[in-house]
């Protein structure tokens, strides 16, 4: 949610950040976000119009794939996501140790550690040493050690790429799966709150650790006074 809000201030890159909530990707919702609103102007430059017809999309799908440990039923699907050309990897890691997952070899995940400290680079030098920008090799970890809280990340530069991602997702991650990673739907269910309301509610939960209640709902609760309790042994009777 923070990345999504910050992207609104980025004037150099017209990128749409979409966070799919509650394990549900809503296709029409994303397309409406990535397509600029019609302004009624007649621009004869077709090439410029094509570029403006779709804003590049960065899609985050937060998931919880287990309670304290990740459920092995998701291993196959997780590894499949790395094979998609739209994949940006997975935000995840071990408990209390965030990592950036960029691929897999069998049941081992290829990971980068964003917390590795590096020597600073002197930008005033004519030929700056950029060796600290890279790592000589990527680390690996067994997929079974992955914390169940993760976020899948995808990038779609055009609407065609997004449509292709939807088709790949349905065929590879949803069709025939007993327990899919997430759901893909064309329209937002009518009984759901709006996307903005859902984002704001989840942001509040993350910030406070508790869900937010409507003020009218809060008024319906009555605080009860503690009852006078007598904990003496006379109040209890043993049945034999």
TrEMBL record:
Q: From which source organism is this entry? A: Oppiella nova
Q: Which InterPro entries match?
A: Papain-like_cys_pep_sf, Peptidase_C54, Peptidase_C54_cat
Q: Where in the cell is it found?
A: Cytoplasm
* GO process annotations (BP): aggrephagy; autophagosome assembly; mitophagy; piecemeal microautophagy of the nucleus; protein processing; protein transport
Provide the family line. Belongs to the peptidase C54 family.
Per UniProt, the keywords (alphabetical) are: Autophagy, Cytoplasm, Hydrolase, Protease, Protein transport, Thiol protease, Transport
Kindly give the Pfam families that the UniProt entry links to this protein: Peptidase_C54
A GO cellular-component term linked to this record:
cytoplasm
EC class: hydrolase
Briefly, what is this protein's role? Cysteine protease that plays a key role in autophagy by mediating both proteolytic activation and delipidation of ATG8 family proteins.
Keyword Membrane in record: no
User: Its principal location?
Assistant: cytoplasm
- Enumerate the catalysed reactions: [protein]-C-terminal L-amino acid-glycyl-phosphatidylethanolamide + H2O = [protein]-C-terminal L-amino acid-glycine + a 1,2-diacyl-sn-glycero-3-phosphoethanolamine
Residue stretches making up the Peptidase C54 catalytic domain: 2-167
Name under which the protein is recorded:
Cysteine protease
Question: What EC number(s) has UniProt assigned to this enzyme?
Answer: 3.4.22.-
Q: Which GO terms describe its molecular function?
A: cysteine-type endopeptidase activity; protein-phosphatidylethanolamide deconjugating activity
